[in-house]
UniProtKB/TrEMBL annotation:
The lineage of its organism: Bacteria, Bacillati, Actinomycetota, Actinomycetes, Micromonosporales. SUPFAM superfamilies: PLP-dependent transferases. It catalyses: L-methionine + H2O = methanethiol + 2-oxobutanoate + NH4(+); L-homocysteine + H2O = 2-oxobutanoate + hydrogen sulfide + NH4(+) + H(+). Keywords: Lyase, Pyridoxal phosphate. This is homocysteine desulfhydrase.
Amino acid sequence: MRFDTRLVHEGQTPTPGTGDLVPPLHLAVTYERSVQEPLRYFYGRGENPTRENLERCLAALEDVRFATAYTSGQAAAEAALSLLRPGQRVVASDDVYGGTHALFDLVRARGVTVDQVDLADPARRDRALGDDGPPPTLVWLETPSNPLLKITDIAEVARLAHRRGARVLVDNTLASPALQQPLRLGADLTLYSTTKFLAGHLDVLGGALVHDDPELHERLVAHRTTVGSAPGGPDCFLVQRGLKTLALRVARQVDNARRVVAALTAEPTVGTVHYPGLAAHPGHQVAARQMTGPGALVSFSYRGDPVKLMERVRLFAAAVSLGGVRSLIECPALMTHRPVPRDTRLRLGIGDDLVRLSMGIEDPADLVEDLVRALRAGPA
Ligand SMILES: *Cc1c(COP(=O)(O)O)cnc(C)c1O
């Protein structure tokens, strides 16, 4: 089965006896069992058939055996970081999700070293993963990054990291498995906030880790059962419902992004446009090699007041999150990246004038019209 078919068919085995093509939503948190013959299902914090259907689908999408679902992307990231011991070293992208910065602070407090570097820059990457410094246990990268959409070469990072015995985790939330498959490029683990593209409808939180290591799977399941970060049946059902249309939604979202980018580059009030699909983007060639499309996020610097722009648009909702069916607009300095100290933010290239768009599945002509009208409505 190919990817688009797997989205619809994997983890959808009809129930014996009824033949229903949508597996039932399992709500039970406990299961009757005989003491002589213990069942596979014991208690909902550990096992739930609806969760297992979702996990079967998530693993199949990347052609591996294991996926663990979580209550959120943050819970999935925490689970991956729980594997680290004091004294170990992590090399991570500098431009990571805001919540990831906060989790890194927690592991630093546990005595783990986290060195954040610009892994999208080949010279800095080679230095951080070269033979000097202590060997890392884990390399954590996010590509495309948020909000600047910097591109890191996954295969090259995996090659360098494996030489030093490190595992590579890719936060693949911004691309989704529809556009990028890190495990095929040599990474060891993919992390998702399924809240975003995978569920896609802005109505459920979820996260996942996907990989092919049986020993790791055992550790992750034990950790999740202990801390209680497994999602319930209804949330898993909603994520899997969303997954069925992932390929269709992402294709439309990428198309909408291309149309909006073309309009933005012609507007005099718009400065640099960050989009990996543009030939001038520094990661353009690597993106073309490792992704099947340049994504559905766009950011740009605006020569006006971003707050006024957010007030003037009508179809784009001023809101955080991304990857859903509705188009969103946000100003990272005021919203998603507000907790990042201003000098750090500016050093990363996230100016006060930066605006980020997450494309929905609306008609592109409506989106372009709305944005262009808002950009032209002066005074800035
Ligand atoms: C949203 C997001 C997360 C965190 O996911 P939640 O589901 O909100 O907990 C992690 N990484 C990236 C890149 C994200 O966009």
